[in-house]
Amino acid sequence: MSMTISLNCKRCGEDFDVRPTTMKLLGLRELPKQCPKCLDRIQRRPAEASVEIRRCLAEFPAVAVHLPKYLFTPYNSGNKRDEGRSCLRATIKGSSLDGRGGVSWSGRIDIFCPGSKEMPRVARVRVMEVTHAAGHKRVERHGQPMMTKDVEVEYSPTYTYLGVEPALTEPTAALILTSVDYKTTLKGFGRQWRASLDANKALWRCELSRRARSGRFGILGAVAIVDDEHPVIVVQTGDVKTETRFNFSHPTGVENINLDEYI
């Protein structure tokens, strides 16, 4: 069974947690003697990349991974101590969803798989929270068409990501990506359909969205960890009403669910 151990930093004297299995996946033969905060300072990493606090919010020991393989690409952190170590990363956000809309989006989750060249079929998944010394800043264009302006936005220094490691056991949950699109027309004329996505019952979730500025069409989505008692429910109404349940037994969805049972 994988476990976390506590070590004492030889530089600052503070305790920090490490996972020997993760160190082994990264090709490290010895446990670190300095904490991540001190290592970042030694390498003079910028504030938005220097870790102040990292903690595990939740852990799922055996999860079947049902995410598109094309989302994962080789990743290099830019940190010298990580050079030559294999790692995959997927960045899934509202703008990544396939469907209508695309001008405005919300929601993002990064998924890291250290020591791998391809995603494992079954994985131990940790929901991690990290706080950097400062939040990332960037200039974005805000406003309606023909009335836009550039605005500098500073993002929170704290964000959540998933750590994924291979697990040699039978899965009891599934990691999925699901979505549903909607369209409403002016004054109700023309073909239109509405949609809802309920991920509140999932074991863990990151909700996503992508839409046009008018709000008349777009797409709702979620990256979620589900089992058979904690599904994601998608409902779409229009010419035909469809109700789809995503769970461990049906990670790609099964339709014609009795909506009254879940909503």
Record keyword descriptors for this entry.
263 residues, 10-stranded mixed sheet, 5% helix
Detailed description of the structure:
With 263 residues, the chain is mostly beta strands. Among the domains are: 1-42, no CATH class; 173-261, no CATH class. 5% of the residues lie in helices and 46% in strands. It has helices spanning 20-25, 36-42, and strands at 5-8, 15-18, 51-66, 73-74, 87-93, 104-106, 108-114, 122-132, 137-142, 149-154, 158-166, 173-183, 194-198, 204-211, 217-226, 232-237, 242-246, 254-255.
Shape: flat
The main sheet comes to:
10 strands, mixed
Structural class: mainly beta
Average of pLDDT: 84
In terms of DSSP E residues, the strand content is over 45%
Note the total helix count. Answer: 2
First-last Cα distance: 38 Å
Assembly state (oligomeric): single chain
Q: What is the CA-based Rg, rounded?
A: 21 Å
The total strand number stands at 18
List the helices and strands and how they pair.
Layout: E1 5-8, E2 15-18, H1 20-25, H2 36-42, E3 51-66, E4 73-74, E5 87-93, E6 104-106, E7 108-114, E8 122-132, E9 137-142, E10 149-154, E11 158-166, E12 173-183, E13 194-198, E14 204-211, E15 217-226, E16 232-237, E17 242-246, E18 254-255
Parallel strand pairs: 3-12, 7-11
Antiparallel strand pairs: 1-2, 3-8, 4-5, 5-7, 6-14, 8-11, 9-10, 12-15, 13-16, 14-15, 16-17, 17-18
Briefly say what this structure is.
With 263 residues, this protein is mainly beta.
